[in-house]
Design a protein that fits this description.
Pfam families (chain A): FAD_binding_5
CATH superfamily of the largest domain in chain B: Aldehyde oxidase/xanthine dehydrogenase, molybdopterin binding domain
Oligomer: heterodimer
Number of helices of chain A: 9
GO molecular function, one term (chain A): FAD binding
Largest sheet of chain A: 5 strands, antiparallel
Structural class of chain B: alpha+beta
Protein name (chain A): FAD binding domain-containing protein
CATH architecture of the largest domain in chain A: 2-Layer Sandwich
Number of domains of chain B: 4
Shape of chain B: globular
CATH class of the largest domain in chain B: Alpha Beta
Number of strands of chain B: 31
Largest interface: A-B, 53 and 67 residues
Strand content of chain B: 15-25%
Low-confidence stretches of chain A: none
Organism (chain A): Streptomyces actinomycinicus
Mean pLDDT of chain A: 96
Largest sheet of chain B: 7 strands, mixed
Number of helices of chain B: 24
CATH class of the largest domain in chain A: Alpha Beta
Distance between the termini of chain A: 52 Å
Mean pLDDT of chain B: 96
CATH architecture of the largest domain in chain B: 2-Layer Sandwich
Structural class of chain A: alpha+beta
Domain FAD-binding PCMH-type (chain A): 1-172
Helix content of chain B: 25-40%
Chain lengths: 274, 930
C-alpha cells in the first residue's frame, strides 16, 4: 500500500545521517504491507551492490541482508552441501508466495523478528551469525539465535543495519531434519523445528522457532534420547516463552514443538536409538 | 531526476511519490486491470510482471520500477488481440466468478508457464497449492481455477433457442480475462476528490467537541465533515424493500459512537494522502461511556444502554435491554413433547464472527452529470452495491432529493456475499459531494472492511431436542441470541430468518422459540450468505446427529423419518408464511445422494496410520426468495440490427445472473445469447429492482426477464402476422427472422416496418415479478474426514454436496455457486474468525490475521443436482447461491464427532482446538499422554 507519510527515499549507499522517522528499505514486502504513519524517509538498500549469497574462502556461507528469498532458494537448489535442502525447506515455510520471494529479503525477515520468520529458523538452526553495522560504521557480530530476542524484538539499535548473515562451514556439512506445522494448509508456521547432526563430532542441535517467541537452539554433545530431549526443552523454554497469538494456542504449539523435536531426533538418529 | 518505466510497452515518465507502491502508480496511469484486494501482499489480485518476474505490485516500491518493463493483465494478450493461452483457458473453464482476483491468477499462471522448463523451474505448476499460496479467490472454491490451469474446457455454445440448461460462459468473461471489465473504482473521473474517515478509538463515547481547524489547514483538504454537518435523520444501513424491516438507529455521523471503528469524521481532499493527514489532525474530545460487548450481558438489567436516546418509534424492541428485535412462539407444548421423549438432548452451540471478504472493498464514487433533458445536473453514485435501487431510495430519503435527481449504478461488483446489501459509504460520500458540488470517492481499505463494514452475526443457540425410541421427533426448542453489534442493520431480519426454515424442515408436534437480536458495543453485524440459517442449522443438524446416535439410529434414517414431506406445510413456532410452500421437493433425493456416497466410499484406504476417520452429513432448507416481496422489472427490446436489448436492475457480482438472464431471454426469443446485450444494475434502465440478495437473481429477476422475453416473443409474432397477413399460429420466431408460413421476415425488416408504422411499442415488452409465491430449495452435504490425533490436523477425504436447485439453468455456473458456498463455509468451519479484544476492537484486520481459504485448504467437492422442477420459479428453477453454505459446518462437525467421539459445539474447529479436545478426552479417560 502507499506509505503516504513517506516524503523521501534515500540511497543507503550515500551513508547520510540517520534521522527519526527513517527506516531501512529492503524488499519492502513488510513495510508496504501495513500503514507506517511514523515513517518519513525510506533508506533504500537496493543499490548497495552486495553479492547476494556466496561461499567465502573458509567455506562458510555469507548471505547478504539484501539477498532475496528467490535468490537464496535458487542458490540452495544448486548448492552442493549436506545441509542444502534445508534452505529450500525454509523458503517454502514462508506464508508468502514465490512472488513475494522475488522481492522479500533475508535481512528483512530477520529484522522483523517474527516467531514464524523462516529465515530466522534457517540461520539460527545453522548457527548463523549476524554482521551489524552501526551508523558510525562500527561492526559487531551476534548469533542469530541471540539477535531475535522476542516476538518482533531484536538486538538492533536505531539506525543500525544488518549487513549479512554468515553460516559456518561446519553447519553446511550437517545432516538436517525439518518439521513444520500450521493451523492451515501451507499456512504460517505455528511450530517449526530443525535438527542438525554434525558428522564431524556427532553433536546434535535442535532449534525451535515459531512455537516460541524467539528461537531456541539447544546443543547436545551427543544426540539425546527421548527423555533427555524433553527435559532439555522443558528446561530451556519457560512457560512464558511459548508464543500466544491467533495462529495457534500456546499449549498446542508447545505440544507440537515437543512432538516435532522428537520426530527430528528420530530422523537424525536412525531408528531413534543413539 | 528523471523516471522512466515501460508499461505494456508504453513509456511513462511521471515520477512516483516516495512512498508509493507500484499498484497505485499503475492505476493512476489508467491500468485498472491491476486490482486492490488487500493492499498488503496477501491476495495477489495486483500481480504484475516486472521484467518478466511476477510480483505483488501493492508491495513493490514504485521508484524501483525505474528503467524496468512492467506487464499488467492488459498487456497479456498479443498485440493483435489474440488472447494469451492462459486467458483462453480461464474462459474455457470459467475459472472465475466475480473476476476481481482473476488478473492475479492469470499473471501468476502466465509467469509459471513462462518459467516452465527454465533453470528456475521448480515444479510449481505441478503443485498448485504451492503455486497459488499468494492468490486468494473468495468466489470459486478454486476447483474452477484448477480446471482452468489444467486446460479443462467446460463452456458450451448451444444453438438458437437452446440456451437454457446449458453451460454457457459469463458474458463478461472476455472483459474479465483481459482486465477490461470495469469494477466500481475502475473509472477516471476528472476533478475527483478523495475521502478518508476518522474512526472511533472508543467502544462507547459521546463526542463533546471536534476541532477540524488543523485538518482544514492541510494543503489540498477541502472539507472536514462531522456530526454537525450530518442530517439528524435516523435510518438503517441495511437495505430492504421495506425500510421498516430494520430499526432506524444510524446517523451519517453521530455525536455518540458505539463501537471501536465507528466513523467520527470525514475529510475530503485532492488526494488520499492529504485526506489521511487531515484525519490525523482532527482533535476530538470524547466522554467515554460504559460499554458492553457480550450480548447476554447486554440484556441484563443494569447493562449500559447503547441506544438510550431511541425507542419503539425507531422500531427497537426493547431499548433498555439492548434488544433490537425478538420473537417468541410455541406451537403445541414442548414440555409435553419432552415428557413423551425417550431421548432428550440439550446443548449450546456457538458460531463466530465471520467477514464476507469480498475481494473488492466497499466504496463508491459520487459525481454530477448533466440530466438527459438538459435541465441541469443530477447526482450519480457509482457504488459497489447489491442494491442500486434501494440505495437510491435511501439517499433520496436522507437528503430529501427527488428520485430523478439521483442515479445509482453498479459496475461489475467484485463480490458481495450479503455484505453489500448495505449502505455503508454512499451516504457519507454523497454528503460531501452535495456540500462541495465536486465528485467524491470513498474506497475502503482492507482493514476498514473488518472494522468499518459488517460481519456475519455471531449466534449462541441453546437447543433442546426430544425423540421417541422409534426415532420420531417429539419436540424442538431453541433459545437463540444473535449479536447484532452496535447497530441493528439486518439484526431482526437475520434473527427471524434463522429460526424459520431451520425449524420448519423437521416435523415435530411441539416447537418453541425464543430469539433475540442484541445490541453490543461491537462492529455491526449484517446480511451474510445464508442470512442466519447457517448459524442455527449448525445447532439443529449437530443435535439431530447426536440424538440419532443416542437412539442407536443411523443419523440419515433419523432425518428421513422426520423431514418435511412434499405435501407438508412449513410450520415454525411462530406460524408460517402465507406465500411459502413446497413447489418442488428434492430433499429425499438429496439424502439419497448422501446415502449412495457413503455406500460407495473407499476414501479411507488412503489414510495414514494412526489417524482417525469419520463421516458426517447435514442438510438444510431455504426459501427461494426473501419474504414480504422482492420486486424486479425487466425490459426486452428488439434493436434495429435484429439483436435484442435486455434491461434488468439486479447487480452482477459473479453470481452469474447475467448469464442466466441471457439464457432465459435467448430461450424465449429463440435466439442465441450473442444477440442479446444486457444493461443492468442501474437505476436508469428499469423502474425498480429490490436487489441482488436473498438468492433472488434467478428466481425473481430471472422471472421478470422471462415474462418480458415471453411477452416480446408473442408481440413479435403478432406483429409479424399482421405485417404479413399470415395467421399468427403459422408464424414462428427464429434467431434471424420470423418464419411466416414459409416467408422469412427478418427481424431487421420487422424493426423497420414497426418504425415506419410508428408502432415501436410492438418491439418492446416489460416483465415484472413480485417475488411471491415462494418455494424452497434443499441442500445436503457429506464429508468423510481423517484426523491426526497427534496434531489435530484434519483432512477432507471426500466432500459431496447434493443441491436441489430445481431446473438448473446453467450447470457450470450453478456448480460454481455450490462449490463457492461450500468453500466459504469451510473457511468459517475450519479457521475464519474476526477476533475482538475486550473493548470490542477488531484485532484481525488483515488477511494475514484473518485466514481465507486458500487453494491448499480446499477439497474438491462433488456436486450433484436433483431432478426437480419448481412450479413457481422461472422454467422450474430455484435459488442456489446462499444455501450451499448452510449444511457445511454441521456436516463437518458430525464427521469430526464420528472420528473422535467429541461433539464440537463451537465454530471454528481449528487444528489446535481439535488437538486440545482430543488430548483432554484422553486425559479424562486416563490414557497416557504422548
Amino acid at each position: 500500500m502507499d506509505l503516504n507519510t513517506v516524503l523521501d527515499i534515500r540511497d543507503a549507499s550515500r551513508h547520510e545521517p540517520w534521522r527519526p522517522g527513517d527506516a531501512w528499505l529492503g524488499g519492502g514486502t513488510y513495510l508496504f504491507s501495513e500503514p507506517q504513519p511514523h515513517l518519513r524517509r525510506l533508506i533504500d538498500l537496493s543499490r548497495m551492490g552486495w553479492e547476494p549469497v556466496q561461499i567465502l574462502p573458509d567455506g562458510s556461507l555469507e548471505i547478504a541482508a539484501t539477498c532475496t528469498i528467490a535468490q537464496l532458494s535458487r542458490f540452495g537448489r544448486t548448492l552442493d552441501a549436506q545441509a542444502a535442502p534445508l534452505i529450500e525447506q525454509c523458503c517454502r515455510a514462508f506464508l508468502a508466495s514465490f512472488k513475494i520471494w522475488n522481492m522479500a529479503t533475508v535481512g528483512g525477515n530477520l529484522c522483523n523478528g517474527l516467531p514464524a520468520g523462516p529465515m530466522i529458523s534457517l540461520t539460527a538452526a545453522l548457527d548463523g551469525e549476524c554482521l551489524l553495522q552501526a551508523q558510525d560504521g562500527a561492526h559487531r557480530r551476534v548469533k542469530v539465535a541471540d539477535f531475535v530476542t522476542g516476538a518482533g524484538r531484536k538486538d538492533l539499535a536505531e539506525g543500525e543495519m544488518l549487513r549479512s548473515v554468515t553460516i559456518p562451514a561446519r553447519s553446511l556439512r550437517c545432516r538436517t531434519a525439518f518439521m513444520q506445522v500450521s493451523l492451515y494448509g501451507l499456512g504460517r508456521s505455528a511450530a517449526l523445528v530443525i535438527g542438525t547432526l554434525d558428522p564431524a563430532d556427532g553433536s546434535f542441535a535442535v532449534t525451535i522457532t515459531a512455537a516460541t517467541t524467539r528461537p531456541f537452539r539447544l546443543w547436545f554433545a551427543l544426540p539425546p534420547d527421548r527423555a533427555e530431549l524433553r527435559t532439555a526443552i522443558t528446561t530451556a523454554v519457560g512457560d512464558g516463552d511459548w508464543f500466544d497469538d491467533i495462529h495457534g494456542l500456546p499449549e498446542w504449539r508447545r505440544h507440537m514443538a515437543f512432538h516435532l523435536a522428537e520426530q527430528v531426533r528420530r530422523e537424525l538418529t536412525l531408528d531413534g536409538a543413539r | 531526476m528523471s523516471f522512466h518505466v515501460q508499461v505494456n510497452d508504453q513509456p511513462f515518465d511521471a515520477e512516483p511519490r516516495a512512498g508509493q507502491c507500484l499498484r497505485t502508480y499503475l492505476r493512476e496511469r489508467g491500468w485498472f486491470g491491476v486490482k486492490k484486494g488487500c493492499d498488503a501482499g496477501d491476495c495477489g489480485a495486483c500481480t504484475v510482471h516486472v521484467d518478466g518476474e511476477p510480483v505483488h505490485s501493492c508491495l513493490y516500491p514504485a521508484v524501483r520500477a525505474e528503467g524496468r518493463s512492467v506487464t499488467t493483465v492488459e498487456g497479456l494478450a498479443a498485440k493483435d488481440g489474440e488472447l494469451h493461452p492462459v486467458q483462453q483457458k480461464f474462459l474455457d473453464a470459467q475459472g472465475f466468478q466475480c473476476g476481481f482476483c482473476t488478473a492475479g491468477f492469470l499473471m501468476t499462471t502466465a509467469a509459471l508457464e513462462a518459467e516452465r522448463g527454465t533453470a528456475h523451474d521448480d515444479g510449481k505448476l505441478d503443485d498448485l497449492p504451492r503455486a497459488f499460496k499468494g492468490n486468494l479467490c473468495r468466489c470459486t472454491g478454486y476447483r474452477a481455477i484448477a480446471d482452468a490451469v489444467r486446460g479443462v474446457k467446460h463452456t458450451e455454445r448451444p444453438c438458437a433457442g437452446r440456451a437454457v440448461g446449458k453451460s454457457l460462459g459469463a458474458p463478461a468473461g472476455p472483459q474479465v480475462v483481459t482486465g477490461t471489465a470495469r469494477y466500481t473504482f475502475d473509472v477516471d473521473v476528472p476533478g475527483l476528490l478523495h475521502m478518508k474517515l476518522l474512526r472511533s478509538p472508543h467502544p462507547h463515547a459521546r463526542i463533546l467537541a471536534i476541532d477540524t481547524s488543523a485538518a482544514l489547514r492541510v494543503p489540498g483538504v477541502h472539507a472536514a465533515l462531522t456530526h454537525e454537518d450530518a442530517p439528524a435523520t435516523l435510518y438503517s444501513s441495511a437495505r430492504h424493500e421495506h425500510p421498516t424491516e430494520d430499526p432506524d438507529d444510524t446517523r451519517v455521523l453521530d455525536d455518540v459512537v458505539r463501537f471501536v471503528g465507528q466513523r467520527v469524521a470525514a475529510v475530503v481532499a485532492d488526494s488520499e494522502q492529504a485526506a489521511e493527514e487531515g484525519c490525523r489532525r482532527i482533535e476530538v474530545t470524547y466522554e467515554q461511556l460504559p460499554y458492553v460487548t457480550d450480548p447476554e450481558e447486554a440484556m441484563r438489567s443494569g447493562a449500559p444502554v447503547i441506544h438510550a436516546d431511541k425507542g419503539p418509534q425507531q422500531r427497537i424492541a426493547r431499548v433498555e435491554n439492548n434488544v433490537a428485535g425478538e420473537i417468541h412462539g410455541e406451537i403445541g407444548s414442548v414440555d409435553d413433547g419432552f415428557a413423551e421423549a425417550a431421548v432428550v438432548y440439550e446443548e449450546t452451540f456457538r458460531t463466530q464472527r465471520v467477514q464476507h471478504a469480498s475481494l473488492e472493498t466497499h466504496g463508491c464514487v459520487a459525481y454530477f452529470e448533466p440530466k438527459e433533458d438538459g435541465s441541469g445536473e443530477r447526482l450519480t453514485v457509482r457504488s459497489s452495491t447489491q442494491t442500486p435501487f434501494l440505495t437510491r431510495r435511501a439517499l433520496c430519503a436522507l437528503y430529501d432529493l427527488a428520485e430523478d435527481e439521483v442515479r445509482v449504478v453498479a459496475g461489475r461488483v467484485g463480490g458481495g456475499f450479503g455484505g453489500k446489501q448495505e449502505m455503508l459509504t454512499e451516504d457519507i460520500a454523497v454528503l460531501a459531494a452535495l456540500r462541495l458540488r465536486r465528485p467524491v470517492k470513498l474506497e475502503y481499505t482492507r482493514a476498514e472492511q473488518f472494522y468499518g463494514a459488517t460481519t456475519r452475526h455471531p449466534f449462541t443457540i441453546r437447543i433442546k431436542l426430544g425423540a421417541r425410541a422409534d426415532g420420531t421427533l417429539t419436540a424442538i426448542q431453541m433459545r437463540v441470541v444473535s449479536n447484532t453489534g452496535a447497530y441493528g442493520n439486518h439484526g431482526p431480519g437475520v434473527m427471524f430468518h434463522s429460526v424459520g426454515e431451520s425449524f420448519a424442515v423437521y416435523r415435530a408436534p411441539h416447537k418453541k422459540v425464543d430469539a433475540y437480536a442484541v445490541y453490543t458495543n461491537t462492529v455491526p453485524s449484517g446480511a451474510f450468505r445464508g442470512y442466519g440459517l447457517g448459524q442455527v442449522t449448525f445447532a439443529v443438524e449437530s443435535a439431530m446427529d447426536e440424538v440419532a446416535r443416542r437412539l442407536g439410529m443411523d443419523p440419515l434414517a433419523f432425518r428421513e423419518k422426520n423431514i418435511i414431506g412434499p405435501g407438508d406445510h412449513m410450520i415454525t413456532p411462530i406460524g408460517h408464511d402465507e406465500d411459502l410452500y413446497i413447489a418442488s421437493y428434492g430433499l429425499d433425493q438429496c439424502l439419497s445422494i448422501v446415502r449412495d456416497a457413503i455406500a460407495q466410499d473407499r476414501s479411507t484406504e488412503e489414510v495414514p496410520e494412526g489417524w482417525l476417520t469419520g463421516q458426517g452429513a447435514a442438510m438444510a432448507m431455504i426459501a427461494t426468495a426473501p419474504p414480504n416481496g422482492h420486486y424486479a422489472d425487466a425490459t426486452v427490446t428488439l434493436l434495429a440490427d435484429g439483436t435484442y436489448d435486455l434491461a434488468v436492475g439486479t447487480a452482477e457480482f459473479g453470481n452469474g445472473t447475467t448469464t442466466v438472464h441471457k439464457q432465459i431471454t435467448a430461450g424465449a426469443l429463440h435466439t442465441t445469447v450473442d444477440r442479446i446485450a444486457v444493461r443492468q444494475s442501474d437505476t436508469d434502465v428499469v423502474r425498480h429492482d429490490t436487489g441482488a440478495f436473498g438468492s433472488a437473481g434467478t428466481v425473481v429477476a430471472g422471472k421478470a426477464v422471462m415474462l418480458a422475453a415471453d411477452a416480446l416473443a408473442g408481440r413479435l409474432k403478432t406483429f409479424a402476422a399482421r405485417y404479413t397477413g399470415v395467421p399468427r399460429h403459422l408464424c414462428t420466431l427464429d434467431a434471424e427472422a420470423v418464419d411466416c408460413a414459409g416467408r422469412q421476415v427478418t427481424l431487421k425488416e420487422l424493426y423497420e416496418a414497426a418504425h415506419v408504422q410508428g408502432t415501436q411499442a410492438e418491439l418492446t415488452a416489460d416483465g415484472y415479478w413480485g417475488g411471491s409465491p415462494r418455494s424452497v430449495a434443499f441442500n445436503a452435504q457429506w464429508f468423510r474426514i481423517a484426523v491426526d490425533p497427534q496434531t489435530g490436523e484434519m483432512r477432507i477425504l471426500r466432500s459431496v454436496h447434493a443441491a436441489d436447485a430445481g431446473k438448473v439453468m446453467n450447470p457450470l455456473q450453478c456448480r460454481g455457486q455450490v462449490e463457492g458456498g461450500v468453500a466459504q463455509a469451510l473457511g468459517a468451519t475450519l479457521f475464519e474468525t474476526v477476533r475482538l479484544d475486550e473493548r470490542g476492537k477488531v484485532t484481525t484486520a488483515a488477511f494475514r490475521q484473518y485466514r481465507l481459504p486458500q487453494y491448499a485448504d480446499m477439497p474438491r467437492t462433488e456436486v450433484h443436482f436433483m431432478k426437480t422442477s419448481d412450479s413457481t420459479g422461472p422454467l422450474g428453477a430455484k435459488s442456489m447461491s446462499e444455501s450451499p453454505f448452510n449444511p457445511v459446518a454441521p456436516a463437518f462437525a458430525n464427521a469430526l464427532y464420528d472420528a473422535t467421539g467429541i461433539r464440537f459445539t463451537e465454530m471454528p474447529v481449528t487444528r489446535d482446538r481439535v488437538w486440545l479436545a482430543i488430548n483432554q478426552q484422553k486425559a479424562r479417560r486416563g490414557d497416557s499422554s504422548p
